[in-house]
Design goal:
heterodimer, A: 389 residues, Formate dehydrogenase/DMSO reductase fold, 15 helices, B: 358 residues, alpha+beta, Alpha-Beta Plaits, two-stranded antiparallel ribbon, 10 helices
Chain lengths: 389, 358
C-alpha cells in the first residue's frame, strides 16, 4: 500500500499531467495532419509556403542545439578540459534537438517518406537545402555516436564504448565541420530570395550571421539548461558537475559576450555593405534595432558585467535574453520580415494546430531529456569509467 | 549533365571561390541558354482581358471548371494569383494610363530559381525553353515556392497522400507529343497579345514595336534581363510596377545568387579540420609543456630540498663530529687532569701513605 501511494504520487506531478495532456493533443494533431493533409491543420498558402514548423522548429531548433558542438569543441579541442562534465548534457540536448527537428520536419514535408530521395534517388546539389539535409543527417549520426557512450556505459557494453570513446577527437572535429556547414546553410537558404526578405535582414552575409549567432545561442542554451535542470536533476548530478558548473558559466558567459560582440559588428557590416542606413529610420528599422541592440549588444554587455562581477544570476538571465534574441532573429528572417512586401491580409499567422504541433515536439524533447538523463550517466560519471577523459 | 547541376557542382568544388559573385565555371565561358529556345511575348497594350487564354489553358491541361464561369470578366478586377486549378490568370490594373490587363503565369526563367533551390532537382530548363517539374521525385519541401521571385508555384496542401507543386509548364508534354503546335493560352488569344516563338526573335519583335510606337510603350522589355532573363517577355504602355510586375528583382539569377555561398562550402570541410586539429595540437602541446614544466619544477624542488637536507646533514654531522671530538678532548683532558691530580695527590701523600703504611 505504501509503495502504491508512492508511485501514484510520483506519477501525478504537475509536470507529468501537463506533459501528458500536450502529448495527447499532439497525437490527435498528428492523426489530423497525416489523415487530412497539411492544408487541414495549417495556415500555409501559396504565398507563404513556410510557417513556424520551418521558422521555429527547424531554424530555431538547429540554432539552439548548437550547444553540442560548441561545448564538445571547447572542452576537447580548445583546452577547457576541466568542464568535461558539461559535455554530456550538451551532447544529449543537441542530439535530442536535432532528432526532433527531423521529427518536426515530417509534419511539414508534403511526402515525408521521400526524405531520403535527395540522397538515394536524385540529388539537387545546387540547392542550399541539399547541403542542410546532408549535413544534418551526417551530424545527427555524429551526435548519436557521441551520445551513445552514456547508454553503452549504462548497458555495460565496454568494448563498443571504448571504441567510440576512442574516436572522441575525430567526432568532435567532424561535428564542428558539419555544424559550420549546416548552421550557415540555414541562413543561405534565404540568399535566393532577395525580393522577399526585408533588405535589413537580407544580406549576402546571411550564412555567416547564422553561424556566428548559433555559437552564442549554443553557449547560452548550455547555461540555460544547466539552470533549468539544476533543481529537478540535482539528485543525479555529480559533485564534479556541480563543482565546475559556476566556473563553466563564467567561462561561457565570457565567450558568449565576445561572440555576441563579433556578431553585432558583422551585422553592422551587413548594413554598411548594402548601404541600408536610411532604412533604419523606418518602422522596420526600429524593429531591426530592437533585435540588434536589445537582443545582441545588450546581452553582450550583460555577459561581460556578469563575468566580471561573478554574478551568476545576471549571467543566467542574460543567457535567456540571448536565446530569445536568436529565436527572434530566426523568426524575423523566416516569417516576420519575410514576405514583408505582401499586404497584411496576405501575411501568414500560424494556426493553433501549428502551434500545438510545435508545443508537442518541444514537450517530447523535454520528456526524453528527463527520462534519459535520470537513467543514464549524463550528469554524473559511471563509476567504471571515472578519470577517463 | 544539366548546366545548372554542372555549375552547382563546380561551385561546390570551389572552382568559383575566387569569383564569388559570378556563376561561371571553367574559366571565362558563359552559357547564354539553349540556342533556339522558345518563349512567349505578351503585349499589355493589346490585351483586352477576355480570359480566353485562361480557357485555353484550362482545356489543354484538363483543369476543373472555375466557380465563376470564364465569361464572367468581373473576376479580373480582384487581384488574383496562380492557383492549383489555374496555371494562368489575367488581372485588370487601374494605372496612370487607364485600365490595363496583365497575364500571370510561370515566367520560365532562363536560369530558374526553383530549379536552383530544389534538393531533388525536380525542375528542368528544357531545350524548348519550358521549365518543367517532375512530381515523381518531389519531397514537398516547397523551397521552390520560397525561391520563386514571381510567386508562381502553388501546392496542393489539402492532399494528404500525393501533394505536389503545380505551375505552368508551357504545355511541354503536349507540345513535345505533337498534340498541339502552340501553348494553350497563346493558341486561344484572339488579339495577338501573345506571340510564341524563338526568344531571340521575340526580343527583336518587341524592340521593333517599341521603336515603331515609342509613344505607346515604355522603353523596356520586361524579362529580357530580369532575374537573369525569362522566356516570357512583357511589353507595356504603362510602368511595369503598375501592372503588378516588380521592378526591384534585379538582373541576377537565383543560381548566381547562390553560387557565392556554394563556393565556400568546399572550403569548410577542406580547411576546418586542419585548423581544428592544429588548435587541438597546440592545446595538447601546451598541456604537455605545462605538465613537463610542473614535473621539472617538482624535480628541481625535490633535488634542492635534497641538497639542502644533505648539506644540513653534513653540517650536523660535522657539528656532531666536532662536538664528539670536543667531548673526547674534554673527557680526555678531564681524565688526564684527574689522572694528574691523582698522580699529584699520590706523590704528595706518599709519605702519608707510607706513614700510614709504616
Amino acid at each position: 500500500m505504501n509503495t502504491e501511494a508512492q508511485s501514484q504520487k510520483s506519477l501525478l506531478t504537475p509536470f507529468n499531467v501537463i506533459a501528458g495532456l500536450i502529448l495527447l493533443m499532439g497525437a490527435a494533431l498528428t492523426v489530423w495532419r497525416f489523415g487530412w493533409g497539411i492544408g487541414a491543420v495549417t495556415n500555409l498558402d501559396n504565398n507563404n509556403p513556410w510557417g513556424i514548423w520551418i521558422g521555429f522548429d527547424l531554424l530555431c531548433g538547429v540554432a539552439l542545439a548548437a550547444g553540442g558542438f560548441v561545448t564538445s569543441s571547447a572542452v576537447y579541442l580548445f583546452g577547457m578540459k576541466k568542464h568535461h562534465a558539461a559535455v554530456r548534457p550538451a551532447i544529449l540536448t543537441a542530439f535530442l534537438g536535432y532528432l526532433f527537428v527531423v521529427v518536426a520536419l515530417q509534419y511539414d514535408l508534403g511526402r515525408p517518406w521521400r526524405l531520403p530521395y535527395p540522397f538515394v534517388v536524385q540529388s539537387g546539389t545546387t540547392s542550399m537545402l541539399f547541403e542542410v539535409g546532408l549535413c544534418v543527417a551526417l551530424y545527427l549520426t555524429v551526435l548519436f555516436l557521441e551520445f551513445s557512450v552514456a547508454p553503452l556505459e549504462w548497458l555495460g557494453k565496454k568494448k563498443l564504448r571504448k571504441l567510440i570513446h576512442g574516436m572522441t577527437i575525430v567526432l568532435t572535429i567532424f561535428g564542428v565541420v558539419l555544424s559550420t556547414l549546416h548552421q550557415s546553410s540555414l541562413g543561405a537558404l534565404y540568399i535566393i530570395a532577395p525580393s522577399k526578405l526585408h533588405p535589413l535582414w537580407y544580406s549576402s552575409y546571411l550564412p555567416t550571421f547564422f553561424f556566428v549567432s548559433s555559437v552564442a545561442a549554443g553557449m547560452s542554451m548550455v547555461m540555460l539548461e544547466g539552470w533549468i535542470s539544476h533543481k529537478p536533476m540535482h539528485k543525479v548530478m555529480s559533485d564534479d558537475y556541480l563543482g565546475q558548473s559556476d566556473d563553466l558559466n563564467y567561462g561561457f558567459a565570457k565567450g558568449a559576450s565576445w561572440v555576441l560582440m563579433g556578431y553585432f559588428f558583422i551585422k553592422v557590416i551587413g548594413i554598411a555593405a548594402d548601404n541600408e542606413w536610411h532604412l533604419l529610420n523606418t518602422g522596420w528599422g526600429s524593429w531591426f534595432l530592437i533585435e540588434l541592440l536589445g537582443f545582441v549588444l545588450l546581452p553582450s554587455f550583460l555577459f561581460a558585467i556578469g563575468t566580471r562581477e561573478k554574478n551568476l544570476k545576471l549571467i543566467r538571465w542574460t543567457a535567456l535574453l540571448t536565446v530569445l534574441g536568436i529565436v527572434l532573429n530566426r523568426l524575423n528572417v523566416s516569417l516576420i520580415a519575410f514576405n514583408w512586401h505582401l499586404p497584411s491580409e496576405m501575411r501568414y499567422v500560424p494556426s493553433w494546430q501549428e502551434v500545438g504541433v510545435t508545443l508537442f515536439v518541444v514537450t517530447m524533447i523535454v520528456v526524453s531529456f528527463k527520462v534519459i538523463s535520470s537513467k543514464t550517466p549524463i550528469f554524473y560519471e559511471h563509476p567504471d569509467y571515472k578519470d577517463e577523459h | 549533365m544539366k548546366r545548372r547541376n554542372f555549375l552547382g557542382l563546380m561551385g561546390a568544388a570551389g572552382v568559383s571561390a575566387a569569383l564569388p559573385t559570378k556563376a561561371q565555371a571553367g574559366g571565362n565561358v558563359d552559357f547564354e541558354g539553349y540556342p533556339g529556345s522558345k518563349g512567349v511575348l505578351f503585349d499589355a497594350t493589346r490585351c483586352i482581358g477576355c480570359r480566353k487564354c485562361e480557357v485555353g489553358c484550362n482545356e489543354v491541361n484538363n483543369l476543373p471548371q472555375p466557380e465563376k464561369p470564364f465569361t464572367d470578366l468581373s473576376v479580373t478586377e480582384t487581384t488574383r494569383r496562380t492557383e492549383n486549378e489555374a496555371y494562368t490568370v489575367v488581372n485588370k490594373y487601374e494605372t496612370s494610363g487607364g485600365p490595363v490587363f496583365r497575364k500571370i503565369q510561370c515566367m520560365h526563367c532562363m536560369e530558374p530559381s526553383c530549379g536552383s533551390a530544389c534538393f531533388v532537382a525536380a525542375f528542368t530548363k528544357e531545350p524548348s525553353g519550358a521549365v518543367t517539374y517532375d512530381e515523381s521525385v518531389c519531397v514537398g519541401c516547397r523551397y521552390c515556392m520560397v525561391a520563386c521571385p514571381f510567386e508562381i508555384p502553388t501546392y496542393t496542401y489539402n492532399d494528404p497522400i500525393t501533394p505536389k507543386v503545380i505551375k505552368c509548364d508551357l504545355c511541354e508534354a503536349n507540345m513535345q507529343a505533337g498534340k498541339i503546335a502552340l501553348p494553350g493560352c497563346v493558341n486561344s488569344c484572339p488579339k495577338e497579345a501573345l506571340v510564341y516563338g524563338e526568344r531571340d526573335e521575340l526580343i527583336k519583335i518587341a524592340r521593333n514595336r517599341l521603336e515603331a510606337n515609342p509613344d505607346n510603350y515604355i522603353d523596356h522589355i520586361y524579362g529580357e534581363n530580369e532575374v537573369g532573363g525569362t522566356s516570357w517577355l512583357f511589353i507595356s504602355g504603362v510602368p511595369f510596377s503598375e501592372i503588378g510586375l516588380r521592378e526591384d528583382l534585379g538582373t541576377v539569377s537565383g543560381p548566381e545568387l547562390n553560387s557565392g555561398a556554394l563556393s565556400v562550402v568546399a572550403m569548410v570541410p577542406a580547411l576546418w579540420p586542419l585548423l581544428l586539429a592544429g588548435v587541438y595540437g597546440i592545446t595538447k602541446r601546451t598541456d604537455k609543456i605545462n605538465i613537463k614544466e610542473k614535473a621539472d619544477a617538482v624535480a628541481k624542488a625535490i633535488s634542492e630540498t635534497q641538497d639542502k637536507a644533505s648539506a644540513d646533514m653534513k653540517a650536523a654531522m660535522e657539528r656532531a663530529a666536532n662536538d664528539k671530538a670536543a667531548t673526547v678532548k674534554r673527557e680526555v683532558a678531564k681524565v688526564v687532569k684527574e689522572a694528574e691530580e691523582a698522580a699529584a695527590a699520590a706523590a704528595g701523600g706518599d709519605g702519608e701513605t707510607e706513614e700510614e703504611g709504616a
